[in-house]
Amino acid sequence: MMKLASKAFLLPLALSMVFIVGCLPSGPDGGAGSRTITVYGFSIMKEALEKEIYPAFKARWKKEYGEDIEFVSSFAGSETVTNQIVQGAPADIAILSIERDADRLVEKKASPANWRDSPNKGIVNKTPFIILVRAGNPKGIKDFADLAKPGIKVIHPDPVSSGGAQWSILSIYGSELKKSEAESGTADPVRATRTLQAIWKNVISSPGSAREARTQFELGQGDALITYELEGLLMKQANAPMEVVVPKSTIFSEHPALIVDRNLDAGKRPVVEAFLKYLWSDDAQQAFVKFHFRSVTNETYNDANKEFAKIEQPFAADYFGGWSKAYPDIIEKIFRDQVQRK
User: Fold this and answer.
1) Is the domain of 199 the same as that of 119?
2) In the chain, what is the straight-line distance between the N-terminal and C-terminal CA atoms, in Å?
3) pLDDT tens-digit map of 157-187
């Protein structure tokens, strides 16, 4: 009877130990002790992630859990990154330029529909759009409308592949709406469309991402580049022969981060979720500011970056009713149908 009782006790104990061992974290090769997180991000996320945020998270995780974490990254235009994930790329986390791309991942069953339940509705950082010009500003460019002047050569990323390009279009169009509204009391969509048309006629190159557009400008192409503020500040930090022109009215781009749920198993999920949550931590938000993104959790962090421009008439995507309206109403019906096709 004692032997039977011992066996009855040992069997469930053994089964429970198998279950516990099966749930322990395992590395990418199936062994314990290390794991890899794969991040797909839009092009300008590279420096902040690789130089500051990845190393800090790895050190914290190692200290708390004794486990090594490695990161694998892929950076491209936001639309390109989203398409890659939809087609099966092995991303664990996506950090994108526009909310529309995050919603596309939801529609394709790659990411959870509740991604906006994360802090700050899933937005990890933001940055305004500015204009880069050559040293000394020889063309006298002071605002978006100046890019429409005859003879100005503009570098602008491709809206088909780049989220930054779509932000730029909204920035130009919205800027003219905001200024006309301030001047007359009524926003003027005709003026905004004409300005967008005139600027697009001056575009001489449309590379696939904001980073590729910056590279072309650095290589001497064009008189001006419309881009994220942080790209200008990184170039300024590197002593590039250029100047930042801050438009009177411009948009703040807001960038979502979310899990690619389709690619996660139960063992890997906790560390991936921990890293996603870390992006809103004080340390990560201050790291973003260091690399010229604006914090979305604490405005006082932004005061630490003295290079940030003061925007006279700022706006965001919600000025157009959010991306669910901005994309069909402006990117498609105005830019694609009235500007690009002409």
Assistant:
1) no
2) 91
3) 999 999 999 999 999 999 999 999 999 999 9
